[in-house]
Amino acid sequence: MKPHLKPLVKQLLVERGVRRPGAAPADSLGGPVRPRPNGWFCLAFSDELRPGALTTRRLAGAEVVLYRTGRGLLRAVRPHCPHLGAHLGVGGSVEGEDLVCPFHRFAFDPSGTCVRTGYGLTPPKASLTSYPVCEANGGVYVWWHALGLPPQWEVPVLPMDVRQPFSHDTFDIAGHPQDVIENAFDWGHLPALHGLRDLDIEGTPEPGKPVSTVTATARGTAMRGFRPSYTLTVIGLGTIAARTQLPRELGTLYVLLHATPTSPGRIELRFGTKLELNGVPGLPARLGRAVATPLARLASTVMQRVASVDTGADLLMWHHQQHVEAPKLAKGDGPIGRYRQWAQQFYSEAADGKAPTRPPRNRVSRAGE
To answer: From 102, 103, 342, 358, which residue has the greatest number of CB atoms within 10 Å?
Structure first.
């Protein structure tokens, strides 16, 4: 990274936001609002939703209440109670397998059906509006489609240990998911912005397939001293998952980047790092395996801070970036044109030209059961 960018990136990481006098965020410039893409979007890392936990997140101009039941079932619902409209994420609670409204203690089972009231009388025929939800790769994904269609594809499962959590951060910035995911195919910015050297990279998205793969080797990454090989798995217009094999089969480093549309021109950027060790050099195999997991968790926290500097440079660009519909591409850019053609499969328009903000009623994913 160029030295003059480092103070700006440090400010971003410390203040959890982007502030640059004289340069406005992209969403404040009054440009055309691009449509939201369809697909799976990460609204939380798995460790943010322990059994019995509940939280409210934003997705595509609406709010989503995420919760996990006592037995570990994961659910995502529209936030307002069908009784009298109380917000389930403001004072609501998870009691066993039920989500309980704070206003009149109406309780809803995992299917979304009202099973009791706070009065001890027969409950009304009422149900929560549920979003399709799944859990994969240490993240909680919710499906959104402009036409309200059910999931058209599944989130691929990467070969990782889901018992070990990510070290992660979240940023609220101006931007669009398509521009974030374009980073996987914008190969020209890797040496220019991140200082990578000896870059050998290949991979183009295949038309009609929601998942793409890029493989690369490079010097100048966060892991100094050797030329690592890594694989990028691009999941729709919501996730880039980087998997790096450590030398001498020591383990695997995962870095995940999630772009979730929240409101017109804004995204939440979730960024996580996880190191998985097969053992510890210099220790007997049995002892090395015993200490590998706690050591890897500590190292993941450190590596998250190191990797955040590089990712922070991208955040700075996205926050002020204006999308160029017909870019003047040059040799060395990477397959950006092919990526943009591939990205079109994730867009649709409702008949009236407006995208609905509510999911299909009573559609509950069974992922996690």
So the answer is: 342
